[in-house]
Amino acid sequence: MADEKLHPNKESIEELLESFREAPERKRLTIIPSLEKRVEELIALGSSLMTGFDSDEGDWAPGFILQLVNKNDEDFIKNNLSCNDSAWFTAPSEVGFNYSSLQQYLLNEHYEEADRFTSAKLRELAGEEAVKRGYVYFSEVESIPVIDLTTLDKLWIIYSRGKYGFTVQAKILDSVGGRYDKLWPRIGWKKDGIWTRYPKAFNWSIEAPNGHMPLVNQLRGVRLMDSLLNHPAIIARRQ
Known about the structure:
Elements: H1 2-6, H2 13-22, H3 25-37, H4 39-44, H5 60-72, H6 76-80, H7 100-107, H8 111-126, H9 128-133, H10 146-158, H11 166-175, H12 180-187, H13 223-229, H14 232-238
Helix pairs in contact: 2-3, 7-8, 10-14, 11-14
């Protein structure tokens, strides 16, 4: 490339991408601005863009890359990566649910829609009574399949730079000694807004605090969230 001739010591886009892929989390965050500046070069990689990334793992690096190229070329994934509905990551379900809509919402950073989808799927996974009722009882959480809750959590983490998801919330809760009164301020849930499903102050963007999403309905206290964060799927992922 002409730019590389002018700047012979500049990393190639492939080298920069590899550095991003292999870097620890804090280092990755410092590489993001460089990737954003060179997004056209990423797009030019075409079908080789995701070489070295694993669609089965819960790593957020490939999720960020897909979000970045999708912002600049919404047809890139469809035209280059041979996956249906922009759903590049594997999203297994024990009960046959299709999570491609969730992947699309998160890919496009439509976090409120992703949250509503997640809540709806949790009700379906909890059982027919939860669907009829419109919310999940804490006692119904144990019936949610490990595979499906793992998939929901993985997709949130992948498409949020590791900021959102049940595992993130669980780790923050652990860091404050399991005290929910200390958890709420840490994840940005205001005390005067937590008891409603969609508080006006809720921040549906990547700029929200770690653990801010998904939003768990606390109308009936903390027992539902406690059951979710202590589900075997989340316990396994938080270790």
